[in-house]
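Private note to self, pasted from the team thread so I don't lose it. Backbone tokens:
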């Protein structure tokens, strides 16, 4: 059970680190010179694919096993803090999907048109606040 919990925490850490780093790089992207921007796209896609995506998979799978192997499933599922955590997880998963969609659109733009980052800044701040809220609970 402790191994599953450790795996769950590792997945959350990996997921949030990948998403927050990707969003931070997307915010810094337009400030760099045009020669460096293709490297930024490579880094952003790497963090999104190889850190955030495996992190969310590890988090979901380990949490399902934790729910399955818990002693009192109904008690864990229906406590207010667990319901709040589940709601925050759903919001963060929606933000993750929005980042993937916006990154695909962003990467298809020409290098000169990659200047609009307002949505990435909002998602970055919201994701940081949600991560802090989950850690507090």
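Design output:
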């Amino acid at each position: 059970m402790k191994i599953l919990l450790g795996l769950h925490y590792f997945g959350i850490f990996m997921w949030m680190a990948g998403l927050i780093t990707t969003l931070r790089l997307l915010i810094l992207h337009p400030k760099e010179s045009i020669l460096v921007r293709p490297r930024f796209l490579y880094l952003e896609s790497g963090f999104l694919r190889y850190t955030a995506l495996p992190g969310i998979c590890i988090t979901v799978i380990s949490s399902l096993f934790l729910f399955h192997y818990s002693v009192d499933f109904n008690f864990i599922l229906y406590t207010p803090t667990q319901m709040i955590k589940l709601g925050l997880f759903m919001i963060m998963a929606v933000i993750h999907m929005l980042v993937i969609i916006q990154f695909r659109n962003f990467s298809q733009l020409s290098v000169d048109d990659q200047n609009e980052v307002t949505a990435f800044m909002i998602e970055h701040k919201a994701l940081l606040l949600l991560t802090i809220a989950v850690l507090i609970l």
